[in-house]
Write a structure and sequence with these properties.
two-stranded antiparallel ribbon, 4-stranded antiparallel β-sheet, alpha+beta, 2 helices
Length: 118
């Protein structure tokens, strides 16, 4: 697959995840549309899983593919608001990401959604 095709297909998949998170949280930022595997760019996966991370600026709710590549993310949130949004994401039927780490751009983050579940 050519890079341009990977970007187009990945953008479509990430945009779908972005709209789901936007409907729930009222804000969602598109993040990755492609990922690199075996030296080649490919689109992010079709699957949508939920996760949460903690950054110095606050908690972030994210939707990722099966490999943990972030397609969309919320803005930085206080813990209580993040907990409420994450609960709504799960209630919408989006499964929890089973992995322990996700990727946003070139950074890796540990998932912490268990801290948000009441």
């Amino acid at each position: 697959m050519q890079y341009f095709q990977a970007v187009q297909q990945g953008k479509k998949r990430a945009n779908e995840a972005q709209m789901k998170l936007f409907d729930i949280a009222g804000f969602a930022m598109l993040t990755l549309t492609t990922k690199k595997k075996d030296g080649k760019f490919i689109p992010v996966g079709e699957e949508i899983y939920s996760a949460a991370i903690k950054k110095p600026e606050g908690y972030v709710i994210i939707l990722v593919d099966a490999d943990g590549y972030t397609k969309t993310q919320s803005k930085d949130l206080e813990k209580e608001e993040a907990s409420e949004i994450y609960a709504k994401v799960r209630e919408s039927g989006i499964e929890e990401f089973p992995g322990k780490q996700i990727a946003i751009w070139t950074e890796m983050f540990d998932t912490i959604q268990s801290e948000l579940v009441k």
